[in-house]
Amino acid sequence: MPATLLRAPFFFSMRALASFIMQGRLRAVTATTGLGVVGLLLPPLALVSSAAVGLVGLRAGWQQALIVAVIAAAVITGMVAVAGLPLPLGILTAVIQWAPMLLFAEILRRSSSWDWVLHIGMALGTGVVLLTYLLVPDLSGFWIRVLEQSVGQIFQQTGMPAAERELAFQQVASLMTGMVAAISVLSFVLALLLSRYWQALLYNPGGFGAEFKALRLSKAAAGLLVALLLLAWLAEVTLFFELALVLLVGFFLHGLAVLHAVNTLLGLSRFWLVGAYVVMALALPQMMIVLATVGMLDTVIDLRGRLDRSDSV
């Protein structure tokens, strides 16, 4: 009972927001625009804005989601103009936050397969990394300039010597392309997960969990991840590690699906999942590696299937 009471406010607020979005195009545009503007100041809420576009795409198709995204982008562009900020900000919001959601939502709507979503997401992420290396001549220098402009002043205020700051920026810059690509893939998939959760709340209660727990990436993807990590270690080429980071995100989500499936198979309390998410919030990099390893093991030896068969004996 206590767990149910704790979940009730969250459940009804999520359902109310999803219901509001689906009550007409005007409300969908209003929610997308409002959350998009707030997301410029509070980046986590940008995921909710993308999820609003994803929900429309999952339920009504990419054409309707595109209309919502275009109108919302026009409204944000107008607000940006009134505020005296650069006009491209509104267009960039639409392209960066909402355009990928049109693709991912349509893939999931047609296939009902998180496997397809993640495989295509990982392929796009690694493609972006490779394309960036081809198009940007001095990639490390580019990221160092970005870091200097964005956080350089903060480091100066801490009293860090210039030489140490430059060395730190050089180390981070060597991996920035892969990290940005990996974080982008993770963000879009998390937004799509929220979209699918909303859709299940409104139209298919209980369907979200079963679909997500069935997620399983291919052995080919697992083999590629291992190969990239070995090449990065043996050849000491950061590009291989950056590509591996994108695949690592996919297997992290695979491991998360395994975690939820095992919790259900063993009939454990939801508090175990809550505890796992608390640990994840406190030590995300370490938990990503642990869950990605679990995901890779499940791909190779079918952990869920073995556990299910042992319980049925």
SSE layout:
Blueprint: H1 2-21, H2 25-41, H3 44-60, H4 62-82, H5 88-111, H6 114-135, H7 139-157, H8 162-173, H9 176-203, H10 207-213, H11 219-235, H12 238-265, H13 270-282, H14 284-301, H15 303-312
Helix pairs in contact: 1-9, 2-3, 2-4, 3-4, 3-5, 3-9, 4-5, 5-6, 5-9, 6-9, 6-12, 7-8, 9-12, 10-12, 11-12, 12-14, 12-15, 13-14
Helix content: over 70%
Determine the number of helices (DSSP H or I, runs of at least 4 residues): 15
Shape: globular
Based on CA atoms alone, the radius of gyration comes out at 21 Å
Strand content: under 5%
β-strand number: 0
Structural class: mainly alpha
For the largest beta-sheet, the strand count, sense and barrel status come to:
none
Transmembrane segments: 34-58, 65-85, 116-136, 172-194, 214-234, 240-259, 271-297
Keywords: Membrane, Transmembrane, Transmembrane helix
